[in-house]
Amino acid sequence: MDQQRMENFIEDQIRKLIVFRGNCNEDVCQWLYNTETVFDSVQLQTSNKFLVVQSYLIG
What we know:
Elements: H1 3-15, H2 28-41, H3 46-54
């Protein structure tokens, strides 16, 4: 996969992440598992995980 296609794939996968609001009907463990699965699939570096996850924590 060329560099541009890889970057597009990574961006698409990260955009699919679901926002976590901390509501009582949300499962934080499941949300973390799903988020980490996406991060692993795109081989996101640990330092970038912190930056990305901030955008998906609301409330």
